[in-house]
Amino acid sequence: MLGVSLAKPLNTLILAYRLMNAIDVRGVSKDFTAKVKPPGLWNSLKSLARPQYKNVRAVKNINIQIKQGELVGFIGPNGAGKSTAIKMMTGILHPSRGKIKVLGYNPQEQRQDLAFHIGAIFGQRQQLLYHLPAMDTFELFAKVYELDDGDFRKRVGELVKIFKIDELVNTPVRKLSLGQRMRCEFVASILHKPEVLFLDEPTIGLDIIAKRRVRELVKKLNKEENLTVILTSHDLDDIEELCPRVIVINKGKVLYDGSMEKMRKRITTKIVEFHLAEQANKIPTIPGVKVLAHTPALVKLEVNKRRAPVRKVLSAFMAACKVADVVIEEPPIEEIIEKLYQ
Amino acid sequence: MGVRSNFAFIVKYFQLELAAAMEYKANFLIQSVGMFFNDVFWVFFWWLFFQRFGNLNGWGFNEVAILWAITTTSFGLCSGFFNSSGKIARHIEEGKLDYYLTLPKNVLLHVISRFNYPAIGDLAFGICVAFFFVPAQHAWLFVVSSLLGALMLISFGIVVNSLGFWFGRFKEAASASRDCFLIISSYPLSIFGGLTKFFIIFIFPAGMVSGVPVALMRDFSWVWMGYMVGVTLGFFLLAIGMFYAGLKRYESGNTIMMRG
After folding, report:
1. 103-132 of B, contacting A, C-beta below 8 A
2. Cβ contact, residue pair B101, A90, below 8 Å
3. What is each CA distance from B161 to A219, B99, B155, in whole angstroms?
4. Which residues of B touch A102 (CB under 8 A)?
């Protein structure tokens, strides 16, 4: 109208914003209403006449900023609020309070615009058409994302090679293994070259080899396509191998947001298992070592690394017992979270 | 994101669903043919009824045959191409809307657009009966009524299913309401009177699907034509409004889900 085009400066601003923060979550909370009903038929009848509800805050005032190209892991126990947070970022759920921007878009008000730039894989939800070959779903998604036919063919060709699914794409999905299916799910989710990929438990139910393959692919996509990846997983190995940055969520709150390395340093215990070749009548007593289990074939210990270095514990046991095998593990995720909380 | 891209995507969707149905050809044929003969038996019973009783408050077998032609054509269009308009409450309850919400398409159109091949039997039946019973000068009215009837069935399905956003578990109630709506639409309007008639035309408008169109074929009135268009569009707008208002209350879920 004034002979001045605002499109160029606006696009520059959006680009600059994305470089600053691909995801910007500020003061976000999410409340759900849950019906309260004690057990029993009488209480069910009472509840029918006078229902009672309580407010459950699944996410409590979280603040998260993620830059373009970052690989961030969300960890936390079941019901911690990880999936709820991700679903608000993708526009599936509406926050009760606070503001979210993903790639400069408001996920709730600009859901369709944003969806062209993001991809999502929910481990327990399948997007591939079950009775048809994966290629049919890819073709459907080409229409969904309004891809040019030539670009689509080229992209599918590239991804089929990267994901090594050339022999799978023409087989009905119902005949594929879980690992094969997950590789096809990945291709469906990144056909449109998203800038942000949300992965909610992508390795759930997969065997070790399939898990490793998924991790390699996520790394590759992050590196080669500068893809921002938000990953939730129960499997600490997933997070440890992929994510330089972790966000720990429990009871809806962010307990920790920082590097994996720093988080590890805050964990002072290791679980050490000695599988014995012969029964040990007496086991060494070391300060800082707690015996969790002692059977004729196994000794399970919780080792406080600060008070008793693992090397020292191993030497003492090797000298005192006939050890057939040793397993050293991190404590379970719930314990790590508990320690972070303390 | 325009009409053209949505249309291209829906056409592709139907093609794939037909291809998926063709994976099980015997099932496809038996169900489609089965629905056709199910409708044939209903109309046959009405023929027996009129052989015995002559007429029903002025309606004869011809009127009932046209009523069935419009109802089954409308149902065939609604259930054949927008079958999930009657399954939204299930999607809400099981958290299945997540999939649709992560894709850049109109969520309501995407959710309801599902091809349901048995309904092709109903559609074929409706068109066959119309061919024999609808007078040529009213063919346009049959086409318009069937399209409006389909829109009314889709809208009613969305309205009752969207209540699931507020009530949580509502799939059985929504399904029962939709069946009740369909059953009422398949009975002659002449058996209802007074307030009941007003109720089933304007409030629970099953009568608008086929009863009013048959009355229009007997005695055309632009005023009633206007009511028919107005009430149908009103219900359509109500359906869109309720779905999107409810969507803000959607709570998702973690049910394991496969897509057929």
Report:
1. 103-107
2. yes
3. 42, 18, 10
4. none
- Number of inter-chain CB pairs under 8 A, A vs B: 88
Is the pLDDT score of B256 beyond 50?
Answer: no
Residue ranges and CATH numbers for the domains of chain A are 22-31+57-264 (3.40.50.300), 267-341 (3.30.70)
Q: Taking each helix axis as running N to C, give the angle between helix B211-218 and helix B222-247, from 0 to 180 degrees, rounded to the nearest 10.
A: 160
The predicted model scores a pTM of 0.81
Q: For residue A138, give the nearest of A170, A90, A94 by alpha carbon.
A: A170
Beta strands in A242-342 (DSSP E): 245-250, 253-259, 269-276, 289-294, 298-304, 323-329
Amino acid A93: pLDDT: 92
* pLDDT > 80? residue A15: no
User: Is it the case that residue B88 has pLDDT exceeding 90?
Assistant: yes
One-letter amino acid for residue A334 of the chain: E
* ipTM exceeding cut-off 0.90 for this assembly: no
Chain B: nearest CA to A305, how far in angstroms? 38
For chain B, domain boundaries: 3-247
Determine contact: A78 vs chain B, CB below 8 A: no
Closest-CA distance of chain B to residue A245, Å: 25
Q: Closest Cα to residue A138, out of A115, A110, A165, A176?
A: A165
Q: Which A-chain residues 118-147 have CB contacts (< 8 A) with chain B?
A: 118, 120, 122, 124-132, 136-137, 139-140, 143-146
Q: Are A317 and A310 in contact (CB under 8 A)?
A: no
Q: What are the start-end ranges of the H helices in chain A?
A: 7-20, 41-49, 82-90, 111-115, 134-144, 149-162, 178-190, 208-224, 236-242, 260-266, 310-320, 333-341
Mean pLDDT of A269-277: 89
Burial class from Cβ neighbours inside 10 Å (0-12, 13-18, 19+) for residue B249 reads middle
- Model confidence pLDDT, tens digit, residues B145-157: 999 999 999 999 9
Strands A125-129 and B257-259, sheet pairing: parallel
| Residue B190 and residue B59 in contact, taking contact as beta carbons nearer than 8 Å | yes
How far apart (Å, rounded) are the C-alpha atoms in residues A52 and A75?
Answer: 33
Instruction: Judge whether A26 and A102 are in contact, CB under 8 Å.
Output: no
DSSP state of A322: -
Check: CB of residue B113 under 8 Å from CB of residue B82: yes
Q: How far apart are CA A84 and CA B254, in angstroms?
A: 10
CB contact under 8 A, B250 and A145: no
Output the six-digit token pair for A98: 């606070």
The minimum CA-CA distance between A8 and chain B, rounded to whole Å, is: 22
Between chains, do A131 and B260 touch, taking CB under 8 Å as contact? Answer: yes
Contact predicate B140/B215, CB 8 Å: no
Cross-sheet strand order for the sheet of A228-232: A118-122, A196-200, A228-232, A71-75, A245-250, A253-259
Tokens representing residue A313 in the block = 């514990």
For residue B200 the two structure tokens come to 């089933």
CB of A99 within 8 Å of any CB in chain B? no
Selecting from B23, B103, B250 the residue whose C-beta is nearest the C-beta of A144 gives: B103
